[in-house]
Automatic annotation (TrEMBL):
InterPro entries for the chain: HTH-GbsR_regulator, HTH_MarR-typ, MJ1563, WH-like_DNA-bd_sf, WH_DNA-bd_sf
SUPFAM superfamilies reported in the protein's UniProt record: Winged helix' DNA-binding domain
Domain HTH marR-type: 19-78
Keywords of the record: DNA-binding, Transcription, Transcription regulation
Assigned protein family: Belongs to the GbsR family.
Name the UniProt record assigns to this protein: HTH-type transcriptional regulator
Keyword Transcription set for record: yes
Length: 185
């Protein structure tokens, strides 16, 4: 139980760094570790939070699509759980962060490029450069999001091997400032 408590407390502490409050982080951690779906009363009892804090936390986690309502036979209360598959959780988190943070930034950068007649050449170039980089990263994300889970897991495992190969040879992807840059082109 000590390990579970430390995990729950840590998720609460990390919550503010991830854009959620401590209570929401702890609720999520408890649900993540729970074998069976929990109702709000169970969460209140286990974490010592008020019913209103738990209800608000569950609503926020549902808005992030990180918890789901579950029916429990012979119990009329709403129960909640997290997805079982860790890759589903990671994909959901990335998708939600992209939707909430990256997409609005990209829209604003595009708007600034169109309306940026009064910006200096340097500022305009930097805005364009940032927009292009974010679009490239977004395209990479979209490509990865289409890969089925098992193939993505294989790709992740191969990632460190590929990185070591690239570092060792410098030929697959030229290293920045490396002496093999001309040779790789």
């Amino acid at each position: 139980m000590r390990t579970e408590n430390e995990f729950i407390l840590h998720f609460g502490e990390m919550g503010s760094r991830w854009g959620i409050n401590r209570t929401v982080g702890q609720i999520y951690a408890l649900l993540f570790l729970s074998e069976a779906p929990l109702c709000a009363d169970d969460i209140c009892e286990r974490l010592g939070f008020s019913r209103s804090n738990v209800s608000m936390g569950l609503k926020e986690l549902q808005a992030w699509r990180l918890v789901r309502r579950r029916d429990v036979p012979d119990d009329r209360r709403e129960h909640f759980s997290t997805p079982d598959d860790l890759m589903t959780i990671v994909r959901t988190l990335i998708e939600e962060r992209k939707r909430r943070e990256i997409d609005p930034t990209l829209s604003k950068l595009r708007e600034l490029e169109i309306e940026g007649q009064d910006a200096s050449d340097y500022a305009s170039a930097r805005i364009t450069e940032l927009r292009q980089l974010i679009e490239e990263l977004t395209n990479l994300y979209e490509d990865l999001a289409r890969i089925e889970t098992e193939k993505l897991r294989t790709l992740l495992k191969a990632g460190s091997t590929l990185s070591k190969l690239v570092t060792a040879t410098g030929r697959v992807i030229p290293l920045r400032g490396g002496s093999d840059t001309k040779e790789a082109n």
